[in-house]
Amino acid sequence: MKREQTEKIKAFAVLVIFWYHLFGCGSYLTLPENIWLPVISEKFALSLCAGPICLHVFMFCSGYGLYRSYICRKTGMRDFLRRFTKILIPYWTVLALTILYLVLRGKFNPEHIFVNLFALVHDDDMLYATFSWFVKLYLELPFVLLLVQKIEKRGSRSFLKDFFLYIVLPVAIWTSLYPLMLAVQGNARMLFLVVSLQELFFYLPDFFTAMLCAKYGVFEKIREKTAGIPGALQVLCSFLILYAVIFIQARQMLSQRVLLDWLQAFLMVCCLLCIMEKGKIHSRYILPFIGKNSLYYWLLSGLFFLNTSELQFIIYAPRYTVLILIWQVIVETPLVIVVKWVAGKLMGATDRIIDCSFRKKG
Q1: Greatest CA span in the chain, whole angstroms?
Q2: Measured distance CA(56)–CA(79) in Å, rounded
């Protein structure tokens, strides 16, 4: 999976998440005055609201890229620190913009400032920047990478052993943490720790599935095995599987059976890769740009919901679902460019400080 393909898959995921937030969450996110009209049938439009599974796709893409860029090459403490700054500085830039707006509107509550610095809780009432809860999850990944590096250095194993270590074990741990979470309800610190671990182990199978795909060349082997199948047939099957995954995800949301989300994420990525390659769907600018800046698009999309929902009328102005989605991307793009420029300047200064400190130690 090439970097450009990863960016396009991230773009697909962020657009589906936008769709989910715009049309799939009802009155929880959408104000009653911001009505929308479906371009296609309302039932089909809502069936496309598979936002949760696209979170797993994001984690999958992160696992694939980080294995290639982090685990497969020699890294040190400098790289470890930069992993934090690449997440924290963009987040803090958007957070500062959100706080400034809340202050001007007289809605800022300084009581939760520390919690917001690292998005410590998955609580929309405490987080200033809506949808920023996943930042904590990405801040935990560098520690996971350090552990994986140590495991990988101990020698090669079979795919089956890796599957049990990286997929079955995290799922088992996640399952075992649920009764523990109920047992520590009266202890706030223990509850925070258990909930944080449960959230991490919930998404780790997606991350590790992608890591195993990169390690064992799974996508390359799939291409070899399907080389004799006509491209049109591959694309048709990919669309059918993609819709089936979305349909199954919608049913799972009702039954809360979510232990196979890593498999659904893998199937979605396989299908999207096939559609891009065999369907010859090329997007040289729009999808790569959205995917490359998906973190900024996701964080800035929170400006239109919950704590800052009074701005929501801006993106619902076109009234029709598809137009609303396109309009949200258009509205956010200038903000993405400006915030990314500011964050880039801050990250450049931070990198120089990190490099200088390591040179002095050397």
Answers
A1: 64
A2: 24
pLDDT at residue 356 tops 90: no
pLDDT digits (tens, 9 = 90+) for 148-186: 888 877 766 788 888 998 999 998 898 888 888 777 877
Model pTM? 0.88
* Local structure of 37: helix, strand or coil: strand
Give the position of tokens 């715009």.
22
Please tell me whether residue 320 adopts helix, strand or coil conformation.
Answer: strand
> Which tokens sit at 220?
């390359």
Residues paired with 320 in a beta bridge? 37
d(CA 204, CA 16): 21
CA angle 308, 7, 30 (to 5 degrees): 25
Task: Please determine, for residue 252, whether its predicted confidence score (pLDDT) is greater than 50.
Answer: yes
Phi, psi of 119 (to 5 degrees): 50, 55
- Alpha-carbon gap, residue 78 to 84, rounded angstroms: 10
- Give every CB contact of residue 362 below 8 A, 6+ residues apart in sequence: none
Quick one: pLDDT at residue 81? 79
DSSP code, position 25:
S
User: CB–CB of 18/315 below 8 Å?
Assistant: no
Torsions phi, psi for 37 (to 5 deg):
-120, 130
Comparing CA positions, the residue from 19, 92, 78 lying closest to residue 315 is 19
DSSP secondary structure string, 256-307?
T--TTHHHHHHHHHHHHHHHHHHTT---SSHHHHHHHTHHHHHHHHGGGSGG
Beta bridge partners of 37: 320
The answer to whether the beta carbons of residues 98 and 128 sit under 8 Å apart is yes
Q: Kindly indicate the confidence band of residue 251, based on its pLDDT and cuts at 50, 70 and 90.
A: low
